[in-house]
Amino acid sequence: MSPPPEVAWLAPIVLPFLIGLVFGAIVKRTAKLTLLLMMLVVLLTVTGSLSISFSDLYEKAMDFLPNILDTGEALKDIIPYSSVSFIVGMLLGMWK
Prior knowledge:
By secondary structure, the protein is an all-alpha fold. 81% of the residues lie in helices and 0% in strands.
């Protein structure tokens, strides 16, 4: 059963907007958490509680970056990033 034509045009506009809102909120919270974790690592390194060398950081980055790139490629196929309503929803989700 399909929706009536008067309402059918809303789905391609509203659904990407809602997905963008949720995606923007997730990105905002993830960025905040990442920043806080980086600050914690810097503080622990400065106080001497944690010892990190550049070679250790490079090795860890090379372990994690391929996984992050694969996840990004998968998200690229799922997220409607070319939709204007998605971009507006994402910006609103990241803003508030």
